[in-house]
């Protein structure tokens, strides 16, 4: 008797955005090792399905440029410090994934060859085609741009099928569900609705980039251990943003 076949992945190539705040877990600063392992395990499960995956990491668990600038620090310097924080997170994620047997490459927008490769688009695509997970750090390499914008830019450059925005909530709400328990959750939205309603899932530059290049955004709860795999296999989870 033939056994039922496993469902085929819905996406061939994805970009996952992981914020620094998620890596922090319940801590007030730094990286929660248990949470880092849980996220790495989700990435491994997707990788094992044969999906090409790139990860953009934030640095807010270590340093955030904008609040520092608002506190009096020169904005460009603060943003560069934030970029360096993302590299620390990328190296931690690389270490965790490789201990699980997943080959990875950390690629950065700032040159620091002792610890990572410089981001070169064609090389990054080749790494993914060879089955390596690429972890992208240092944002765009420019101040005044968020890691959300970096995620949108890299997803477009790498021709990803979708930008997966991992958060601590299960989608996009009209109001913060942590403050308003009865807030309405959206199953789907357009880019223009995100901008007009000023929903703070990503900054306007990132959303506009995705809109101009017709790149879908899927916002979901990364804290649920099987969500990433379920999305890849086609289950309807989170909030889908498209034109």
Can you describe this structure?
The relative contact order is 0.16. The protein has one domain (13-241): Carbamate kinase. The chain has nine helices and eleven strands. The radius of gyration is 17 Å and the shape is globular. Strands 4-3-5-2-1-6-10-11-9 form a nine-stranded mixed sheet, sandwiched between helices. The mean pLDDT is 93. Helix 2 packs across helix 4 (75-99) and helix 6 (147-157) runs parallel beside helix 8. By secondary structure, the protein is an alpha/beta fold.
Average pLDDT value? 93
Query: What is the CA-atom radius of gyration, in angstroms?
Result: 17 Å
Give the topology string: H per helix, E per strand: EHHEHHEEHEHEEEEHHEHE
CATH fold type: Carbamate kinase
User: What's the CATH C level?
Assistant: Alpha Beta
Q: How many extended strands?
A: 11
Number of domains: 1
Give the neighbour order of strands across the main sheet: 4-3-5-2-1-6-10-11-9
Structural class: alpha/beta
Proportion in β-strands: 15-25%
> What is the CATH architecture term?
3-Layer(aba) Sandwich
**Helical region count?**
9
* CATH homologous superfamily title: Acetylglutamate kinase-like
Low-pLDDT ranges:
none
Write down the overall geometry. globular
What share of the residues lie within helices?
Answer: 25-40%
Q: Major sheet, described briefly?
A: 9 strands, mixed
Alpha carbon gap, first and last residue? 44 Å
